[in-house]
Amino acid sequence: MCGIVGIRRFDGSNVDTELLRAMTSRLTHRGPNAEGYWSNGPIGFGHRRLSIIDLAGSSQPMASADGVRHLTFNGEILNYRDLRRRFSYPYQSDGDTETILACYAARGAAGLAVLEGQFALGLHDACDGSLWLARDRVGILPLYYYVDANFLAFASEIKALLPALPAFRVDSCSLDAYLRQRAVPAPYTLFEGIRKLPPAHLLRVGERGIEQPRRYWHFPAPNHRPPSPKEAVEQVATTLREAVATALVADVPVGAYLSGGVDSSLIVAIMSELRQSRGVQTFSAGFGDPRYDEFPYARQVSQLLGTEHHEVSVTPDDFRALWHRLTWHRDAPISEPADIAVFRLAELARRSVTVVLSGEGSDEMFGGYPKHRFAKVSSLAGVLPAKLRSAMQRAIEWRLPPAATRLRIALRALAEPDETSRFRGWFSPFTTAERHAMLLAGTRPPDASWLQEPAGDALHRMLLFDMQSWLPDNLLERGDRMSMAASLELRPPFLDRRMLELAFSLPSSLKVHKSTSKWLIKQVALRYLPESIVNRRKVGFRVPLDDWFRDGLEAFAWDSLTSQASFASTVFDRALVRQLLERHRSGRVNEETRIWTLLCLEVWYQEFFG
Fold first, then answer.
1. What sign results for the dihedral spanned by CA atoms 599, 600, 604, 607?
2. pLDDT at 203 over 80
């Protein structure tokens, strides 16, 4: 993958090429192999390259054969070979980048909709002066922009936009969104005026300003004539195999993350079958605590499949040493403690390979979270008045033991006033009432105008929401930043367009089947893996923050969040923050997620504004 930047001026002045260079220099980690620039009066692009396909060619920014169009592109077009055969064009390179120019030459902006893979791009057409920005279907790769009366600037990461801005401030109205789901959903960010282009959208920029972003792809509705369970399993098995084969297209070494869970294990099993003569390199991260580590399961799968396996243990010192650095890479608070483990894993993998495959997206497509088993309950909860549900939640939650974390989360989610809030509530650190009580700043309703209209049964609606919110704004953003911080390309085969369209056409009853989550994926996995791996309880990377916030990090948390000099003291009710810390110290309630959420916001503020 790569790093891209661009500027389009509206005031008649020329693009400052030194500014382009300053912006591009902030993305060196995304593209350590090469850099390039192009400008022509009021328009200019910058590019940093991580070479994956056509290593000796395909330099960027790239001009069309006739010199009329210019492109800066981040990502991989995985169907580029098919597109090269499909569209007649005077190709001058062997890579995927030029294919984008060929598609545009044949169909205009509509040609961008035939691209498959992961991408974010800026394309200038001198014929009409338009600049097109585009982002892939589910937001695997990021694209941000800033616009005012004088110019528009865009970039792969927010930090690359900052040199172009006259000033930058915290968007106080986005703080509510951050507390709601530990990330700010598109189109907003925590930086005032900086926007995130939503997944599956195009944005046209004219000579005088921008138009409204428009969606170019939709998730399909469930098939009215669904296949039988046996047929559905076969379809998923065939399509996933094709997706993994496509994701292996590269001119550099490709490996895979392996946690020992069903998703990553299945990806590695298919890779091993496809690459019998070459073998597979796999990578795992752990914490060195047998209560939480998945090392034994990853080793078991590695031995079964004969991979060359590598491991890294993450320590408390890693958290202290990397917290600020990775906050800079993410341009946002580190939403999950696992971010640090993901970075250490990427560092490990980069020593051996340039590309890794991961199992990202399977849970959101096929119903893999505990909440997905309760989708119908979540829908039915709306029958009861919101005030009654809220009162019931408070009455029951107070009596729960500290260890009843999942039940506490469920109660808080079900007490939310509307269905969308209940969907968010399963991952939300704070309820709506708690956020409104804590925040001193103003709030802004979520902008759902770009979201595809929910349809289908309760589980289908929940999965559709997760795919458009939790996945792109949190998990995929984390995956991109932490892998790119190590100059490593991450590819998730489950998010292949063919897999997406198949998954959302299948009935919910085959996803959560007889209380078994992700039933379809597990049935496919049983063709490759033993039952003990496929059906074991998911552990995930669990960091003992509960203990740390009562011991080694307690003083840091108190000082950071209650000091008069802190950012937290200017935007949150200090008494409520102190009560939160006191509850955790007492051991009565485990408030680690809430404390982590507030601390990471504080660290982000100090990194960018302190």
1. positive
2. yes
Strands of 130-135's sheet, edge to edge? Answer: 62-63, 69-77, 117-125, 130-135, 201-205, 214-215
Residue with tokens 């589980």: 459
Residue 169 CA to residue 149 CA, distance in Å, equals 18
- Residue 277's pLDDT band (cuts 50, 70, 90): low
Distance of CA 380 to the CA centre of its chain: 30
Q: Where are the alpha helices (DSSP H) in 382-486?
A: 386-397, 405-414, 419-425, 432-438, 458-468, 470, 477-484
Indicate if the pLDDT at residue 205 is higher than 90.
yes
Coil/strand/helix, residue 141: coil
Instruction: Tell me if residue 305 falls in helix, strand or coil.
Output: helix
How far is Cα 400 from Cα 211, in angstroms, rounded to an integer?
51
pLDDT band at 398 (very low <50, low <70, confident <90, very high): confident
pLDDT tens per residue across span 121-175: 999 999 999 999 999 999 999 999 999 999 999 999 999 999 999 899 999 999 9
Over residues 234-244, mean pLDDT: 98
Residue with tokens 């399993």: 233
Structure tokens at 329: 């890479």
pTM score: 0.95
Phi, then psi, of 179 in degrees rounded to 5: -65, -25
3-class DSSP assignment, residue 248 = coil
Residue-wise DSSP of 99-140: HHHHHHHHHGGGGGGG--EEEEEEEEETTTTEEEEEE-TT-S
Sheet (strand 43-49) strand order? 34-40, 43-49, 2-9, 151-155, 144-147, 194-196
Amino acid (1-letter code) at residue 98: E
d(CA 8, CA 45): 9
Q: DSSP secondary-structure letter at 336?
A: S
Between CA 245 and CA 309 the distance in angstroms is 21
